[in-house]
Amino acid sequence: MKTLIAILVIFFFVNNSSAQNGPEITGKIITEQNNEMLKIKGTVTNNSAIHYNLNYILISVKTGKSGNSSNKQSGKFSIKPNEVKVLSESSIRVSRNDALKMYLFIKDEHNEKVISKDSLEVNPNQFSDQVSYIPEASIELTGLTVDDTKTRMGQAFYESFFKKYSQFPKKYEGTITVSELPSFGRSSRIIIIQNDQVIYSFQTQPDDEFLAAESDKALAYLLEYNSQNNLRNREFKY
Asked: What number of H helices and E strands is found in the chain?
């Protein structure tokens, strides 16, 4: 977590000299608070008369009682003259004791230079000041986790899942998303996704022991999925 924050801070300030088209392209993070849910939009405005093909990276880093989690969204986009475009929308649960940092980078598609950037912080004093540098490319391999739960049961499962996963000496590549969908009655369905692959899902019950057991099952399925992937990759190399 410290190293991830470091690269974001360094990356944010080092690229000032490359923002040659700064006034023409403007990236901005817009938030909307609804109780403990924070809705986040990454937006970009083209103030010029030129059509652009660009890339974006939107990263959020959260720390709180359930541990640390990060989310990275990125992609290519085109924007017309004088157009305002929403690049990404997401929601994050942020309580009074949580801290959140968000960074948006707009980059030239051809030379990867940053042409606009924005950042936003919520309770930043919760983060440690002691950070160190890592290369930007390492962000891709940090084993990001995303909390996309909607209810107290979903949040309880995510906290149990994340506490156990954070103890793994080596994290899985890509992004693991814990998503929650409405279901019958007062229950919901929890879905664990690694990158775009559904790994495991189950119907919730208002029972802490049940949710803890399901987090063990989810981690077991993740282990099996990644072990099989590693085996296939080794066989392919031979």
From this structure: 3, 11
- pLDDT for 141 equals 39
Average pLDDT over residues 86-113: 84
Name which of 216, 97, 201 is nearest 160 in CA terms. 216
User: How many CB atoms are located within 10 Å of the residue 32 CB?
Assistant: 10
Tell which residue, 8, 111, 20, has the closest CA to residue 59.
8
| Cβ pair 157, 211 in contact under 8 A | yes
Token output for 71:
């989310």
CB proximity list for 78: less than 8 A, separation 6 or greater: 51, 52, 53, 54
For the question of whether the overall pTM of this predicted structure is more than 0.85, the answer is: no
Label residue 75 exposed, middle or buried (CB < 10 Å: 0-12, 13-18, 19+).
exposed
What domains can you pick out in the chain, each with its CATH number?
1-139 (2.60.40.2420), 143-238 (3.30.160)
Question: Which has the closest alpha carbon to 215: 177, 159, 175, 168?
Answer: 159
Q: Quick check: helix, strand or coil at residue 22?
A: coil
Residues 6+ apart with CB under 8 A from 197: 225
